[in-house]
Write a structure and sequence with these properties.
A hairpin with a 6-residue loop joins strand 6 and strand 7. The N terminus is likely disordered. This protein is of the alpha+beta class and about 400 residues long. It folds into 2 domains: about 180 residues, Glycosyltransferase, CATH 1.50.10; about 150 residues, Alpha/alpha barrel (Glycosyltransferase), CATH 1.50.10.20.
Length: about 400
Amino acid sequence: MKAQIDRRKLTLLLTLSPVLALVACGGSSPDDTSASPQASLLATVSTAATAPMLDQTGNPVYALLNNYTSWLSKATDPAAKLAADRTKADNIVTWQMPHGGFYKQPAWYAAPWNGVAARSEWLGAGGVELGTIDNQATVTEIMFLANVYARTGDLKYRDSARKAIDFLLTMQYSTGGFPQVYPKRGTTYSNYVTFNDDAMIRVLVLFDQALKRSAPLDGDLVTDTQRSRMSFETRMAVQYILKSQIVQNGVRTVWCAQHDPATYAPLGARSYELPSKSGSESARIVEFLMAQPQTAEVAAAARAAVAWYRSSATQIRDTIYDSVTSKVTNTSPFIYKAGAPTLWYRFYDLQADTGFFSGRLPTDNPPGTGKQYDIMLVEPERRYGYQWAGAYGTPVINYANKVGY
């Protein structure tokens, strides 16, 4: 174990060395950021390098990268399959924006960009088209291009993937969080640090697998400079995660789906997505923390989040969640069933383990009923049109049990 730790320490320090001189530059700057976190971050590098790692067998966080496999051709003939995948990869390259990012419309890749159509539905200052990590965008394109590059050796796929990786490295805030879009999208929630739908964690898992040279992110796909930046930016991201963990009555719990890039405070997004403790997104966050070197701070944060999921106060027992059948009957999607697998709410109050729901605001069009503790008081469109509960904590607990957390 000592030799393994020493090798990992040496590897991390050598990998980080090219970027340490650039630390003051940071990444994108959130508005009103106070003191830069990089100075304290440098003090944690050596600690992280010598910290033990948990056995990663069975950690569910790595499944976040698997979406690209659904883009691969289903043809049974190998030549036809490769030809179809090359065509799609060729099309993807044409849709890449100058900054390296992609938008979240994979259906567009059925044909090449015509040179005129918008490549993003979101615009920033000066009309710049915005790339995003929402809905698995950009990360999935990287994985698909990497797969086709590994099978063909065609450098245009490698170079496009590298450009997209640079986009991810550039979009990180100097405090360590990742927004939903880059460049900035006006004053919307897209500029918040975005755990929602696992956006930020998916990027970090991509970095993790690239650093480990796991296929298809192996070979010469990623440059040494990019790997150096990935190492450093991952440490920055871990620090952001630790600082944004919600404290309830003096006890660390979980995270919100969005947080302020400068103050770390939990924030809402759409009108029915209120500041809260997230039963959904927090699961992937804690799984990611358990994939990192287990410093005292990281281990404490992960154990606290696991304890929150294990708490009977957060769990929904003897209940199934069925928004399809209940929509037909106009009844509650929470249905009693003895012995049903444990569920967790999507949203909990910030300072109490009380699940809640939310309609649109009364001022929205269409109007809604706002925050409610009884789901039947939420307008039907939101009551049945949003995922209000799920077995979010089960994979977390199963893996935590395996590694003794």
